Protein: Small CPxCG-related zinc finger protein
Organism: Natronosalvus hydrolyticus
Amino acid sequence: MSLEEQTTKLSRCLNCGFEAPGGDEQWVRLEVPGLGRMTQCPECSSTNVITGR
């Protein structure tokens, strides 16, 4: 395992379990008035995501 693989932190959707590296292009970014920037799951559209950045 390379050093990059060891230090890559995954973000995970708590609704469907989808995982991808934190900040990856796969995640949808939303600007929500009053809340700011949120991450949305590309699989199920949930915003219940634990970020791994």
The chain is about 10% helix and 35% strand. The mean pLDDT is 89. Residues 10 and 20 are 5 Å apart (CA to CA).
